[in-house]
């Protein structure tokens, strides 16, 4: 049997890339270089996360604007409503609109201390659905939201979580990006349930190429994503062998993307962890090749 990826994937996919904000000026330069390297693959958008409780506000803004300036890509800003008043959140969104950013990934966020149950700010947006409605009232932003193929840990069950996703879409969300997962069947089940619930926006699988096994186990535990035993076994013992780990991580992600592709998925959102090569390799396997720069990108490069 020929591997579905190599047999089937013809580059007819759309990708997006997620980065986290740099912690220093030097890291910003590295991030801009990483984003420029991946820009040649023609992502339809890239996004920059927002640190817990808005801790990276300035750095997120700097990275979003820097990437847009250096690459000419549609750069989206993640924005959370935890721990902030509506006025504070609206002021940040207004600034983004003023700076030319047209796409927000709207999230609730988590409390600063782990295991603390979520409580909205007294004058804040209550949850992501309320934030989406607030953003859409402010400006005609393109808005993406989060979705959870294995249900969010705070939800009572999948039906309640799907009701919540439906409310976010009803409030105006244009697309849902999923939490990472490791089984294609998990995604397909979720996609079917969402369709049955009347959720009609695109649901884009979030793909996490594994960079650090120990960290992944901790993170998967807190966000409710299951690592299938076979994958856990295959990752065991690789944290001291970065080159081998890269190869194995690429294989795992490529298998997942291949299975998703075979099941009809044509859009992928990559958690790049600010590293270009692993994501680039998987996109290459999906059939993507560097595109000639667009007129807009050429203008940006000439001006730089
Ligand atoms: P919501 O959609 O508001 O929902 C969270 C939970 O609360 C759900 O279980 C929902 O069912 C329940 N709920 C909400 N409203 C109600 C209601 N009225 N009644 C009953 N139950 C309700 N975090 C960051 O801090 N910064 C980031 O940049 C960031 N980026 C992310 C990107 C993606 C693609 C994903 C998947 C997650 C990201 N997160 C980020 C994490 C996210 O902030 C957390 O998962 C958070 O716990 C939930 O955010 P949400 O937007 O999904 O919340």
TrEMBL record:
- One MF annotation (Gene Ontology) recorded for this entry: methylenetetrahydrofolate reductase (NADH) activity
What organism, scientifically named, is this protein from? Croceibacterium mercuriale
Q: Does the keyword NAD apply?
A: yes
Catalysed reactions, semicolon-separated: (6S)-5-methyl-5,6,7,8-tetrahydrofolate + NAD(+) = (6R)-5,10-methylene-5,6,7,8-tetrahydrofolate + NADH + H(+)
Question: According to its UniProt record, which protein family does this protein belong to?
Answer: Belongs to the methylenetetrahydrofolate reductase family.
Specify the domain of life of the species encoding this protein. Answer: Bacteria
InterPro entries reported in the protein's UniProt record: FAD-linked_oxidoreductase-like, Mehydrof_redctse-like, MTHF_reductase_bac
Q: Which cofactor does it need?
A: FAD
Q: What is this protein called?
A: Methylenetetrahydrofolate reductase
Q: Name one GO cellular component term.
A: cytosol
Q: Name one GO biological process term.
A: tetrahydrofolate interconversion
Report the NCBIfam families cross-referenced here: fadh2
């Amino acid at each position: 049997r020929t591997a579905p990826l190599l047999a089937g994937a013809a580059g007819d996919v759309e990708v997006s890339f997620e980065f986290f904000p740099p912690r220093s000026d030097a890291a910003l330069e590295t991030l801009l270089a990483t984003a420029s390297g991946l820009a040649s693959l023609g992502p339809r958008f890239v996004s920059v996360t927002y640190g817990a409780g808005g801790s990276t506000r300035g750095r997120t803004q700097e990275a979003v604007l820097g990437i847009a300036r250096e690459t000419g890509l549609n750069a989206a800003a993640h924005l959370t409503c935890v721990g902030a008043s509506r006025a504070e959140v609206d002021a940040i969104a207004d600034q983004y609109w003023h700076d030319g950013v047209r796409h927000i990934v709207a999230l609730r966020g988590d409390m600063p201390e782990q295991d603390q149950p979520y409580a909205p700010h007294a004058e804040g947006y209550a949850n992501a659905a309320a934030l989406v409605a607030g953003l859409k009232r402010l400006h005609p932003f393109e808005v993406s939201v989060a979705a959870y193929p294995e249900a969010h840990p705070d939800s009572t069950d999948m039906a309640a979580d799907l009701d919540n996703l439906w409310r976010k879409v009803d409030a105006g969300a244009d697309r849902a990006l999923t939490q990472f997962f490791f089984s294609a069947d998990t995604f397909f089940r979720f996609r079917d349930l969402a369709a049955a619930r009347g959720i009609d926006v695109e649901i884009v699988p979030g793909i996490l190429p594994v960079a650090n096994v120990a960290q992944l186990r901790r993170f998967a535990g807190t966000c409710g994503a299951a690592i299938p035993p076979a994958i856990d076994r295959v990752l065991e013992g690789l944290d001291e062998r970065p080159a081998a780990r890269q190869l194995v991580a690429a294989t795992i992600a490529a298998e997942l993307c291949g299975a998703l592709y075979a099941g009809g998925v044509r859009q992928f959102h990559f958690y790049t962890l600010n590293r270009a090569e692993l994501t680039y390799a998987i996109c290459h396997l999906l059939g993507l090749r560097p595109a000639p720069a667009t007129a807009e990108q050429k203008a940006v490069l000439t001006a730089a």
